[in-house]
Amino acid sequence: MINFGNLKTLGVLGGLGPQATDFFYNGIIEHTDASCDQEHIDMIILSHATTPDRTKAILTGDDGQLIESLIKDVRTLEAGGAANIAIPCNTSHYFYEQMQQAVNIPIIHMVRESVRYARFKHKDVKKIGIMGTDGTISTGIYDKECELAGVIPVHPSAQKQKDVMHIIYDEIKAGERGSKHLFNGVVEELASAGCEVVILACTELSVYKRFHNVPECCLDAMDVLIRESIIRSGAVYQ
To answer: How many Å apart are CA 180 and CA 214, to the nearest integer?
Structure first.
C-alpha cells in the first residue's frame, strides 16, 4: 500500500507541444498503480505553448528568449512546490544545464534516462538509432549520452530525416495522425544500419505511437520519462 505522505509533487513543463503534454499526463495516469484518486501523484502542469520553437532557436543560434523562458518556467514550478521536474520535450534538453542550474530540485534528464533504459533492456546493444527533430539531431544530445553509455548513435539519412521532420511538424503538430509508410521507412533504414534499438526521440513521435503500432525495436523516450516520473514521485509504476 502506498503511503500518501511519501508522494512527491511532480512539476511538468509542458506545451512543447500541447498534444505531447496531454499524452504525458494520460500516460502518468495510465501507468500509476492506483486504486483511488489519492494513490495518484500530484502534478503542477505549466502548459507554456507559446514557448519559442526549440529547433529554430538551436539552428539559428537565436536562443536568448527561449532560455529566459525555460528558466522562468522551471523556477515557477519549483516555487509552486514541485519536488522533481519533467519536461516532455526531447529537444529542450539541449538547454538542460541552464535549467538545472536555475533551480534546486532535480530536472529529470529525459535523454540520459532513455539511453540508460535502452542499455538496461538490451544488454548487448551496440548501435542505437535516433529519430528526432533536426534540433535534436544537430545538437548531438543523444549522441553524447550514447557515447557515455558505450554505444554508437546512428542518425537517419538526409532524406529520411526530412521524412521525420514532415511527420513531426507537418502532420502531428498539425493535428494529423502521421504517415505510417514514412515512419516505417525510417525505422527500416536504421535497422538495416545495424541498430538494435531505435529511440523515438521526439514527443510528437510518441503521439504518433498512440495511433499506430510501431516495430518492436522502437523505444519511446516519453514512456521512459513517464516511468521515471512516477517512480521518483513515490508511486508505483505498472
So the answer is: 9
Residue type, 20: A
- Give the H/E segment covering residue 55: helix 54-60
pTM: 0.93
Please tell me the distance from the alpha carbon of residue 124 to that of residue 99, in angstroms, as a whole number: 33
Please report where in the chains the cell 548487448 appears, as a residue: 124
- Read off the pLDDT of residues 206-227 as tens digits, 9 standing for 90 and up: 999 999 999 999 999 999 999 9
Going by the DSSP 8-state scheme, the letter that residue 17 receives in this structure is S
Strands 84-86 and 127-131 come out as unpaired
Q: Active-site residue numbers? A: 89, 202
SS3 state of residue 86:
strand
Q: Contact 198/217 with Cβ under 8 angstroms?
A: yes
Cβ neighbours for 125, distance < 8 A, ≥ 6 positions apart: 118, 119, 151, 196, 197
Question: Any bridge partners for residue 86, and if so which?
Answer: 12
Contact between 74 and 85 (Cβ < 8 Å): yes
